[in-house]
Each structure stands twice: as structure tokens, then as C-alpha cells.
## 1
Amino acid sequence: MTILVTGATGNVGRHVVDQLIRSGARVRALTRNPATANLPKSVEIVYGELTDPQTLVPALDGVTAMHLITFNGADSAPLQTGAEIVALAEKAGVRKVTLLWNGERGPVEEAVEASHLEWTHLQPPVEFMSNAKEWAESIRSEGVIRHLNGQVLSAMIHEADIGSVAAKVLMEDGHAFKSYTLTGPEVLSIPDKLRLLSAEIGRDIQFVELSAEEERTKMRQAGIQEDVIEYVVGWYANPPEESYLLLPTVEQITGRPARTFAQWLAENREKFI
Ligand SMILES: NC(=O)c1ccc[n+]([C@@H]2O[C@H](COP(=O)([O-])OP(=O)(O)OC[C@H]3O[C@@H](n4cnc5c(N)ncnc54)[C@H](OP(=O)(O)O)[C@@H]3O)[C@@H](O)[C@H]2O)c1
């Protein structure tokens, strides 16, 4: 049984690959850049471009289950080629698929749900712990974080927990046609996160709270598009309840508590020093 992981070089995909290997699966990883994929030796790395589905034919050969991203490129635009990908997957004999949530239903979800594939949605309506990497440079250079609305609470999730859930779903029966909403084990404000970060690296970190206009200026200087800026500012002004509501799903499926932010920081300490 070969399991194909798309998005395998991404924040989540690397953990899906790792957790599948730990569970003894034969893993094939899809990437547009095999030369720079930097994945474990036991992984078979294959070229594939999800916007050009015919390139997936060799990657799907012999595959019975697959982890499928639902977005294209760095800006997370919904992938439009869902119908073609699903048709090729069914033809190749794929039976089961996990779908990584992109914030809303798009062409991939629609095509998978209309197919004969056994699908499972993995929905983290919370931020990934890896978003903290965005702070690394200003912590290293100035020991400061500047951000809008520090009191906003987040049930952030360790990407390895998404990987652990994906591996269970792909390798066990009993998860077909279910949507799993996944969160971390604790709810943290930005000052809470900085206290943990500070303890991990042994250095004080100052938090400077920005106004909405100051946040817009910061994001414009970082080259972020206006629609994304407005989305972020609006989200921080009125965060949806699901972004800070704790759920036991990770533990229920994996049999172990969801990983903490302190654990993520210990694993990623060198990025901040
Ligand atoms: N960050 C958050 O807080 C958060 C929270 C909830 C949900 N999400 C969702 O999570 C997803 C992002 O996951 P992530 O952080 O793991 O992604 P990521 O680190 O940005 O990685 C993107 C991966 O997708 C692959 N990829 C992108 N376009 C492709 C294409 N056209 N063909 C083949 N491969 C393609 C890339 O592979 P190569 O470059 O190697 O080809 C890369 O492995 C988005 O849908 C986002 O909406 C994010």
C-alpha cells in the first residue's frame, strides 16, 4: 500500500510524511521541486503540479490512499482542478483521501464528495503554531514583537497533530465521510505566547501593541496584498469563536493529548536565537 502525500514539503505535509513513516507506511511525496524537497530518505519523491493534473499520472500509480491539499501556491488560492485530480485518482485505484482545509469549500472538496472516494476532512479553524516563525526575525534582531490586538485568544495547533490525525485516518478504518475539527490543547493570547517564547530562549521579549492603522502599515511594508491586510485586520477585530474554542478531537483520534506551544517552541528554538 503506497500513500501519496501532496503538499509534502509544507508546514503540515512534512508532518503527514513523518507520522506515516512512523506508522510503517510506504510514502510517496509530491512536489514541484524534487531537487530541493529535503524529505526523509525512505520517502519516494515524485514531481507533480496539481494545476496540471496529467503530471500526476505517474505519482498516482499504485496509490491506495492520499493526503490532498485543496489550495494552489503560496497565497492559498483554492485549487481549481479538483474534478480532474479526483478522476485520475479513482482511475488509479485510490480508495481513501484526507483533505486539508483551506478555510472554505472549493472545487477539490466538491469533486471528492461527489466521487466514490472515502474522504475525511481535516479542519483546523485555528492558527498553526508555525505562524510564530513570522516573529523570528524581529525577536532575533530587536527582542520585540509588534502586533495588533494582543488579547485575541487562539487555540493554535501544532502541525504534527494534523499529521498524526492524517496518518491515523489514512491507515485505519472508521474515518470515512467524517469532518474532524482540530485544535491545540490550550488557548493563548499573544502575551501568553511571548512568555513561553521568552522562557524557551532565556531572553525578555517586548510586546508592542499596534493600532489597526499601524498594523496595516506594517503589513504594507512587508509587501502583503490589500485584501489580505483587510482580512487580517477584520479577523483580529472580531475573531470567530471557533478560533479559540478547544476541542478534544486530536486526543480522541490519536490517543494522546494535543501537543503544546511549549513543545513546538522547544522543537523550533534555534529559529528565535
Ligand atoms: N497557517 C495557518 O494558520 C492555517 C490555519 C488553518 C488552515 N490553514 C490552511 O493550511 C494550508 C497551508 O498549509 P501549509 O502551511 O502546510 O502549506 P505550505 O507550508 O505553504 O506548503 C505548501 C505546500 O503545497 C505544495 N503546493 C502548493 N501549490 C502546489 C501545486 N500547484 N502543485 C503541487 N504542490 C503544490 C507545496 O509544494 P512544493 O512547493 O514542494 O511543490 C508545499 O509543499 C492552506 O490551505 C491554509 O488555508 C492554514
Note: The pocket of NAP is lined by residues 6-13, 31-33, 48-51, 69, 71-74, 76, 100-103, 124, 127-128, 131 (CB under 6 Å).
## 2
Amino acid sequence: MTTESSQQLPAFKGLVQETGAAFAAPADQSLFSSMRQAGIDWPVSCRNGTCRTCIGQLVTGEVAYDIPWPGLSLEEKRDGYCLLCIARPLCDFVIQRT
Ligand code: FES
């Protein structure tokens, strides 16, 4: 009998709309980190959700944030805009540049 000391969180599938680049996106790390690990270029600066350099728009999918109010308006969030440096995936997703 074996016991698991830690549970592994799921990795979702991410896709960049413009290039078709696909990558694994673990639920416990930012979309930007997953893209970087896959060798995908994406603009980034502050990495804390304030400068908006990394902004993208979800074509499909959903994300969550660890901070209560990232640098996006309610309307932008409704329209699928997200800050990839701090957004974590909740499911498979497609992202596009803005
Ligand atoms: S890099 Fe600044 S908000 Fe993401």
C-alpha cells in the first residue's frame, strides 16, 4: 500500500490563437510562467498585475487570480481580458494577443 504525501494539481491545455502554439498550463502557476517554460514569447514587465504589459484576451476558458482586484476593469474581465503574469487557469483555454 502506498500513500500520497502531496496531491498534484491538474495541468490544462493552453493554446495561443495567432500562432497555434500549444503548452501545458498547470493550475498552480501563471499562464505566463507556463508559456515561458514552453518557450513561447509573451511581453512581460512587472509580473505582479499592475503594469498591464502582459495583457491578453481569452478566446475560450477561464482564469482565477490570487489578488482580489488585478489591474483590469470589470468590463475588461467580462470581455475575457486577463493579465497573464498573475492569471492561473481553471480549465483548457485559448488566448490571443491584444
Ligand atoms: S507584467 Fe505587469 S501586469 Fe503582467
Note: Confidence is low (pLDDT under 50) at residues 1-5.
